[in-house]
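Box 3.1. Reading complex inputs
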Amino acid sequence: MKYIAAVGKYFIMIWEVFKKPTKWTMMRSLIFKEIDELIYGSMGIIIFISFFIGGVVTIQTALNLTSPFLPKSLIGFATRQSVILEFAPTFTSIIMVGKVGSYITSSIGTMRVTEQIDALEVMGINSLNYLVFPKIIAMLFFPFAVAIAMYIGVLGGWIAAVFGGYAPSGEFIKGLQIDFNAFHVTYAFIKTLVFAFVIATIPSYFGYYMRGGALEVGKAATTSFVWTSVVIIILNYVLTQLLLG
Amino acid sequence: MIEVQDIHKSFGDTHVLKGISTTFEQGKTNLVIGQSGSGKTVFLKCLLGLFTPEKGNICYSGNNYADLTSDEQRDLRQDMGMVFQGSALFDSMTVEENVRFPLEMFTKKERAEMQERVDVVLQRVNLVDAHKKYPSEISGGMKKRVAIARAIVMNPTYLFCDEPNSGLDPKTAILIDNLIQEITQEFNITTVINTHDMNSVMEIGEKIIFLKNGYKEWEGTKNEIFKTDNEAVTNFVYSSELFKKVRQMYIEERN
């Protein structure tokens, strides 16, 4: 019953976010600030992880293709499929839940604890719109980050394959081009957009409705990470079944 | 003027406010006193519209808050200033950005015009060289003054303060009290202050209501509080040795 009430409260929150918008000139600067904080500020970790994940996928695939009858181009093919379908959209999203989600919960939670949200409400500002809406809009740029993650992942795979001696450059690139289905990229971006909304809103929910002090802010950030990850994993399954099944 | 008529507020099984009625007059500093847990903060949050009472009415200049639409309620809130116990300044903004925030949000003033108003109110609270500092870089007393500046920047009709001098040294606390009283009289604001600081009562208490266990136990002025025989009030007011001596002197003087 507690969980059903929480889900209901979450959807009411979403409704409130879009009611009574904040003055556009203020909102515009908030959106740019959030893009800088949530997307641009996460690019370093996204690039770093994507590069090495791409490399690891390539090495593991190469080490498992021991038969001389299997062409080396399969290494490039497997790297591309793994990176585009799963590693770039889903793995990056989970990383973002840890980095961005925790930041959102703790920053909104701290505002709650220090009565800054009450201050907004007293001024007659729709605090949910002011705090959550710019984060939702900023996270709409997440697919761009994922596109970069895809490119860097494949690049990491190519470097691992060529410089690790697992496959010649030509074979790897040939594998990247085999049976390319553009819808797989579309599927990845659709997933990413859904995950972006989840990453912006669930941590906001846990931050906004938290009660207590500094200790509870930490607890809320942890709870938010767990639940956002769970929702992303479930949605990943549902969307894969719907779009590719 | 704010008229409070028989308000009740509960949280689950806990009945926090049990039928409080009073009137807060314009241009006066109205103090709400009582021990911790007596319902002062809940009462103030009901006045601010942050909590909705289950029963009773709160009328602002004759308009019942509960009868207003949500848009009208938000508009009314723009006419209220609030000084929170912890100041509630926005950490990510400088002092002047904090004070300018309501102007940017609700007015169509030019940037220079806003800056002029910000300078005026910061000067009014005696903060002239802290414009570019962040809340984390200023003292508790300065934070309170910034909070007061932010609360009055829109020329509010109503000013609410939740324990404005808690955590401050006695000298700074008196400065803050006097500042609030001066502003109240200067701008003819209806000011309601939550406090359990007896110095504030003696300094600026033009009207005082005493809450106990969610009830309004007593109501009067700072002169009347010396004369009252209400046991709950005297136990609260004269809990310190200093105020016991003050009362004794008063009684001796009277006799």
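In summary: Chain B has two domains: 1-79+157-221, 91-155.
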